[in-house]
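Quick illustration for those who missed Monday's session on complexes.
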Amino acid sequence: MKIYVIGIGLIGGSMALELKELFRDCYVVGVDQSETHLEEALALGIIDEKGSLETLGEADRVILSIPVKESLRLLPTLLDQLNDEALLWDVGSTKEQLCKGVENHSKRDQYLAAHPIAGTEFSGPKAAHLGLFKGKPQILCEAKKTRADLLIWSKTTFRQMGMYLRFMEPKEHDRHMACVSHLSHVSSFMLGKTVLEQEADEQNIFDLAGSGFESTVRLAKSSPDMWAPIFEQNKENVLEILSAYIKNLEDFKNKLAADAIDDLHQQMKHTNQLKTILNGIKHNN
Ligand code: NAP
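Prediction with NAP bound:
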């Protein structure tokens, strides 16, 4: 089985490693704009060969794992090149524009819109590793638009990678992601920015980071090349959730200024329910 991975970074690289583990006959061709990343992926055994999009027609499976703006631009021409038995799935963090962009494509049924809810703040093939997807959700959007045999193969393969499947419409996906993921990234980036502006002494930031700063600001180490296009594509949803968040921040500030500490205590206690929510939701695969 010949797999083309377009974008051989954290997610594309990790998925290539999983497929190599699952299928003995898996031969991975890497395509990437970064020659350094291709060389690293070769050296790490993530890919077997450096390739180009010109030979995409020979691929049995294609993983599209590049920033979402680039995926939107490239997806229709990539589908044009697929042979009749091939499947392409993307792993991008936004889905609505991408699905809309190919809704009338003659090979729409050879595309699967996927989003693995797995990742780290690191990028590139050196960050790729086996086990990244274990126990994590794989969101599939408009799954019924994918050809039945290709969908069955995908569902089986993702489950073999240890993922559990969730099905959503693209619009719903983007709305939920704005709330649960994209807002956290905005908040982390702006928290990091504020601390950098206010705390001139880097040694203080380092020494005092254990006070909670390091864990809350982890996402601010994420790649702007990946995140700027996500915010751009999910702008309306992110603006809406940001307004709600800013309202809460203003409210916190006003209550603190007014010494309404009991109110703040109540709010924080209510928010503590996250402990239970994040600890134990059961999944039906
Ligand atoms: P990454 O580690 O930075 O890897 C992306 C690779 O694609 C880089 O080598 C990049 O090269 C290359 N690239 C960028 N534009 C390209 C183009 N037009 N043609 C060919 N190669 C190109 O990124 P990632 O974290 O794996 O993210 C990839 C996708 O997964 C994104 O769509 C993201 O939304 C999605 N995703 C990410 C996470 C996460 O936590 N990281 C989780 C779920 C889904 P350069 O370095 O030179 O730009």
